[in-house]
Write a structure and sequence with these properties.
This protein has one domain (2-308): 6 Propeller (Neuraminidase), CATH 2.120.10. A four-stranded antiparallel sheet has the order 3-2-1-24, with no helix packed on it. A four-stranded antiparallel sheet has the order 4-5-6-7, with no helix packed on it. A four-stranded antiparallel sheet has the order 8-9-10-11, with no helix packed on it. The protein has one helix spanning 2-12; strands at 54-59, 64-69, 79-81, 88-93, 99-103, 112-117, 126-130, 136-139, 145-149, 154-158, 167-170, 173-180, 186-192, 198-203, 211-217, 220-225, 231-235, 240-244, 253-256, 263-266, 272-277, 280-285, 291-295, 302-308. The chain contains one helix and 24 strands. It is mainly beta. The longest helix is centred in the N-terminal third of the chain and has 11 residues, at 2-12. It starts with a helix and ends in a 5-residue tail after the last strand.
């Protein structure tokens, strides 16, 4: 039944160039299909000591999260998380190397599992049965988990290890990216119902209504905020990474990517930016936008990306 569901989704939305009307953009597109090498061990996230720093990559096709060393520009995996992973989308980490993974496919209960691997476990410690797929995840201050639910036009907020949302923020469109800054302001990248293009909305801590950031992109994916407050957005229509300075309405800088940049991650030092595409993760020198590496080994369809140690906020 799972493979049938996956095939139907692929036919219904074979491209991320545009969003599927009313249902969120499908993460499926034509790509080489591979199987993660069986020799890659299934491990608890924080036991891969030789992978320090680490890059976590959700592999939609192979139903796992691969763990790569973050100090190698063309690495092979040193482990993977397998249990409880079914077509992963958003991936996030917290300050203690807890890993959070959102599944695209619903389970037998009808929910969309977000599995949390906390306290050094290789099986989920906590499972949230979300009402829609978590296209992007972010862990903010106090280990609050933010979930972008495009099919519900909402961002759900969960307290640490909680399975019930403490707040739900309505968005006039389909949210595909969530991130917080140093002051715990929440930023949401979404495809607007009003004009059919990508916007970013900023929510102050505890606020239920946001403020538009003042710029648009044709179709925005995930976003991240750097230490200077710059907003980094993946422009999926034009295959660009755009960096907007605080208050800026046009990109201060941008660079092209080989594939549609749905997901993004910065390393802790903010020297490297990682962006996922089908079959690869591209590594860029963040200051210059120059590609310095590629992650392809054992990888099928790259989705969510997270780094540990994570950004320092």
């Amino acid at each position: 039944m799972r493979s049938t569901t996956r095939a139907i989704a692929a036919l219904a939305c074979a491209s991320l160039m545009t969003a599927c009307g009313g249902g969120g953009a499908s993460p499926i597109a034509s790509a080489p299909l591979t199987e993660s090498a069986s020799r890659t061990p299934d491990v608890a996230p924080d036991t891969t000591s030789k992978c320090t720093p680490k890059i976590y990559v959700g592999d939609y096709q192979n139903n796992d999260v691969l763990i790569y060393p973050g100090n190698v520009m063309n690495p092979g995996p040193c482990g993977k998380i397998k249990t409880g992973i079914d077509a992963p989308l958003g991936v996030a980490v917290d300050y203690d190397d807890g890993v959070y993974v959102a599944n695209y496919l619903s389970d037998s209960s009808g929910g969309y599992p977000i599995n949390e691997f906390l306290n050094g476990t290789k099986t989920p410690t906590v499972t949230i049965e979300a009402d829609g797929p978590g296209y992007d995840l972010w862990v903010g201050k106090g280990r609050v988990l933010y979930v972008a639910e495009a099919t519900r036009s909402a961002v759900a907020e969960y307290g640490y290890a909680s399975t019930v949302p403490k707040a739900t923020l309505a968005v006039n469109g389909e949210p595909y990216g969530v991130a917080t800054d140093q002051k715990n302001n929440l930023y949401v990248s979404y495809l607007s119902n009003a004009d059919g293009v990508g916007h970013v909305e900023e929510f102050a801590p505890g606020a239920t209504t946001g403020t538009d950031a003042g710029f648009t992109v044709p179709l925005g994916g995930a976003l991240r905020i750097d230490l200077q407050g710059n907003i980094i957005v993946g422009d999926r229509n034009d295959d660009l990474i755009d960096v907007f300075a605080p208050g800026g309405t046009t990109p201060g800088r941008s660079w092209s990517t080989p594939g549609r940049p749905f997901y993004l991650a910065l390393n802790k030092a903010e020297t490297n930016l990682y962006t996922g595409a089908f079959g690869a993760v591209y590594i860029y020198d963040y200051a210059s936008g120059t590609q310095v590496g590629t992650i392809t080994k054992d990888l099928g369809q790259a989705q969510g990306i997270a780094t540990f140690p994570r950004q320092p906020y």
